[in-house]
Amino acid sequence: MTNSLEIECSALKVTRHKIERVGCAYFNARRQIGDANGVERSDSDEKLAGAGEDVDISYLKSLDPKEWKDQDHYSVLGLGKLRYEASDDDIRKAYRRMVLLHHPDKRKAKGEEVITDDDYFTCITKAYEILGTPKTRRSYDSVDPEFDDGFPSQSDIDNNYFESFNKYFNLNARWSEKPNVPPFGDVDAKREDVERFYNFWYDFKSWREFSYLDEEDKEKGQDRDERRWIEKENKTARIKRKKEEMTRIRALVDLAYNNDKRIQRLKQEEKDRKAAAKRAKMDAAQAQKAEQERAIREAALAKEKAEKAEQKRIEQIRIEREQQKKVLKKERKTLRDKVKDCKYYAKNDKDQLKHMEGTEKICETFNLAELQALNKAMETKGRESFIAALHTAEQKIAAELEELNIAHQKKQVNNTPKTGVKEVKKSELWSNENVQLLIKAVNLFPAGTAQRWDVIATFINQHCSGGSSPVTARDVLNKAKALQNSDHSKSSLKTQANEGAFQSFEKSKKEVQTTNDITLGESPAESKENHKQNGGVSQNNQKQQQQRQQQQQQQVQQQSESKQNGSAVGAPASTPATTPTTNGIASKTWTKEEQALLEQAIKTYPTTTPDRWDCIAACIPNRSKKDCLRRVKELVELVNSKKEAQAAVK
């Protein structure tokens, strides 16, 4: 047998051919030479020769190099079956095989016409560029067109639940960042395995990313700003797709969980176990607590009925009160509207302001029946009914104040011994000068001033003569209470205050007479010249001057009386008889009504109003723009003096 083989081999005629070491012909030649020489072929040659699948040439020719993103790179290289399971070595061998078969030079050598700019070999090269790099291959695998993103149908779930979900969970397990994905299991899986599976998938972390689907390439940007904008748009699209992917995974897990008969069985077992334990416990205690439960139910029913009755009664009372409030509010509004329509039944501005205040007093003091009667009476009598009601309201207020004074006096009677002792011990502190300073300070610093009595004590100590002893806040408070409770009719302070006020009035009387007819914008010489030109002061001006002097004298007396009667309780001081002005000119006293109109006008016309002070002066009869400015300046100086006294205390 051996001899025959040797004879046959020696009879072969060997010829030399020059071949290129690429292509199938080269490998076939090597295979024949190796077989003839008894040399075994290497594994790499065998794998390279058979790597990948045969690719249909018509499919390759149908590819458009410009649309390389839409092509199936695995199918282009002949790895359509292996796809993501193909190793890097498989991809490299498949590419070499495709190069050997479809390189343009090879095809040109065979006589095939090749258009270089539009040749399908560009698609093969692009496929290898994508799959040959781990990062770009990961991007392409994330959007693999052959991957099934769907869910099992309801018929598959009903007929073959475990096989259907095993398939889909195994497909999606490739995206997991964590290794060792727990299996889905079967109908006989243990409770721990089922819980571990669903816990893993409900906390699923996916490495799948969608950079392959970016609409624009960042590197194609012309400048840095454009590249940043492209990167921002791409990032936004990736985040959106990532959210959709996690929503899809969660929906798949929810679908499996809701249709899992094992979960239903476990829930039912847990429910039955708890129900059995609860039933046993209830049966054991039912016999002992039956009577107690009955008594509790009866007590609860009785309590509920009582609460409902009480709530009903309270609700009825509330409804009645609300109705009364509504009716009372309506009657008050009716009264205000009637009085306002009749211009408050006033003959002048003073009566109007008084009646406006009186209307509010009536609304506050009258009850529903009285308001209804008043509104009905005003339809026929009008002013008479309103004036009578105003007097009634004032009488009610006076009666209430009288009751408060009586109660306060009773309280002071109980504290008289203590007050007497303090007054005897501190009598040397309170001279007439100190008492006058106390009265002035109480009016200067009304109730509500921070650390009021300390401020008043500091004020007295600053302005008293050097020989007197300093007073404290406690001394000031005790003296104020003593003055409030004492009989001022028997005190000499009132007489002294009246005399001092009248003397100051006499001193300023001549200045008032000489300057009363001088205009604010003229000098004394100009006013004298005008007086000569006009033939002296007319009789009407003399009468007006006399009336002003009488009003000023009355107001000076009222000021001195109010200082004696109202200083201890912190009542505001009366306006000075005359207001000193620049250049020795004095203006007439501001009444309460004028002061109220000035304050209201300042609120009505803010600082942004054009010709603000002209508008304010127009609201106050017999007052000019300069009078209003001068009065505001005086009030500002008064406030500043208060602040300085408070700062001295601090």
Automatic annotation (TrEMBL):
Coiled-coil blocks: 232-338
Biased composition (Low complexity): 533-582
Localization per Swiss-Prot or TrEMBL: Cytoplasm; Nucleus
PROSITE patterns: DNAJ_2, MYB_LIKE
Domain annotation J: ranges: 72-144
Signal peptide range: none
Domain called Myb-like: residue spans: 582-636
Keyword annotations of the record: Chaperone, Coiled coil, Cytoplasm
Residue ranges, annotated region (Disordered): 520-588
InterPro entries, per the entry: DnaJ_domain, Homeodomain-like_sf, J_dom_sf, RAC_head, RAC_head_sf, SANT/Myb, ZUO1-like_ZHD, Zuotin/DnaJC2
Name assigned to this protein: DnaJ homolog subfamily C member 2
Organism, scientific name: Drosophila arizonae (Fruit fly)
Name of the coding gene: LOC108613728
